[in-house]
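Troubleshooting log. The previous structure file for this entry was overwritten by mistake, so regenerating from the original sequence record. Sequence copied from the archived sheet and checked twice against the printout by T.R.
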Amino acid sequence: MKYRYLFLLLGLLGATLHSPLPPLHIAERFVAREGWPAMRDYLCCEAEQQARRQTLGQQIPARMARACEVVQQTDSTAVVAVELRDSTGGNDFYLHFVKQATWKLQAVRGLAMTNFGRQMLTVLESLPAAERARYNQTHPQAEYDFTVNNIRLWIGSDADIEAHFTRRQADFNKAVQLLQRRPDFQAPAADEDAANADPVINRLLKSLYISRVTRKAADCDACVAFVIGGLIDNTVGLLYEPDARKVPPMNPESLIVVKPLGQGWYLYKTS
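Regenerated output below.
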């Protein structure tokens, strides 16, 4: 009888050790500082071709703290956000998973082309006061303070953007209300230029460090997108869509993350 219970215990232990890992656990092991011998058992598609010898965590500087958070998980797909942080700031990227026989890491995505923004910010922050005044004269539509703070958000961490949104949520809601009062912005063929040029809306958007509002961004015709910035198709901003059923699904080819912020608001990035 003793042996029977021992074999049963060993069988349960073996089943536990070999049970399929959920996306969050795969993500945590994939970005950990130490290596992961079983890594390739949990990769497919693009990620399988890219991660040959080292995990992503082994390639990240050891000083960086890592934190993983499930953004969304369905029966067939999942997205896990990874925050990297050290004394100088933070950065984020996103792991896309697909369910085959077990969960597999499909692709790794992050906002691209941010180095250009960092270079711009370095130049702007080094300008003396007199040069900043001249900059305002030559860039009346995007003066110095707006441009610097806008770039900081563009290249900043998700936590930075979320903190900015939380501080100014009442004003973001006010902007939505102003846009909803404009039939030209709500129409299927929205006159976005007119809405963005409206003096009241434009002044509010500038105070929020938003480049423009659009109905034609982030794979979502129903959403209102508050675009912070980016280059070409690599953009970051905030979405407003109170009906969660209309929010487009994430995918590694375009809409790489849609993070819920509450009350119909989302942080989004494209690539």
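Residues 115-270 form one domain. Archived copy saved in two places this time.
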